[in-house]
Structure prediction request, 321 residues.
Amino acid sequence: MAAAGFYALMAVLVLSAYLSARGRGGALSSFWSIFIVLSIALIVIFYFRDLTQIKSLLFYAFSTLALLCAFFVVTSANPVHSACWLVGSLLNVAFLFVLLEAEFVAAVQVLIYAGAIVVMYLFMVTMIDFHRTLDLTLTRLSVPAVTALVVLLGAEIAHLISRGRAGFVSKADAQPVGPGDVEAIGRAMFTTYALPFEAVSIALLVAMVGAVLIAKRKHGE
Amino acid sequence: MVYLDQYIVFSTLLFLIGLAGFLARRNLFFMLMSLEIMLNAANVSFIAFAKHMGDLGGQMFVLFIIAIAAADAAVAFAVILALYRLKGTTSVEAMKTLKG
Prediction:
């Protein structure tokens, strides 16, 4: 019964998202509808109390929302709308991480991915004049070619998974993960993964210096 | 009870959406957005396998992927800005020559 309610709410969300894409409802209204759906999801969680019964439902809800938001990222003509839909997709994937018992990674995703990287994209929007670009939308020739490629790739991956050749034993969600909390990740980060940690910090430093150097205005400009 | 299969299918679909967006859009900014979606899909796959195999290494790798994606987005931003100053547009149709 709750499943029917969830799907009805998602149908409302899809309709509002469609209307916003047509320019009727506005992207803000569909963003609010996502927010409302997620709030109702939280209320339903607290009502049910026993999360193991509802895990499948939550997975379907959040994964559908994430795919929907990703679809609108890709097909928006307005770059700010695209960034907003990207935030929606990242937040839904963070919920999926919590379902997968990786709470620290979910928090890092919200803080850094949705909180810093997308903000940087919005800064990009302020510095680039999108009205002077040649075209913002999909070209006429590329849509069928890309659709064919994507369908072929999807069929190939589905075939591999169904034949069991993808390299993993499916249909088993049995083994509990080790503790995914901050202490375990911190301990692993500074003992086993100390070298990649240092390497990533050097990579971030190089990226910072390089970005400033590349984007700097040259003399006489 | 959510099986590993379902997470892998979801990760694949998300990756394909990002891939289609990357190939079909003709503007560098939207291609960057699609790239972020693809990285996100790989992250989901990593975390799903980390839970399935009981190994914390999948989550560690995702942390490193997020950090490197941030660095990559910063450098891509700088490159787009420089190209925009040079060509006056961010459409890839204008980036036809190797000559800067």
Remarks:
- Chain A touches chain B through 93 residues (CB under 8 Å).
- Chain A has a mean pLDDT of 78.
- The two ends of chain A are 64 Å apart (CA to CA).
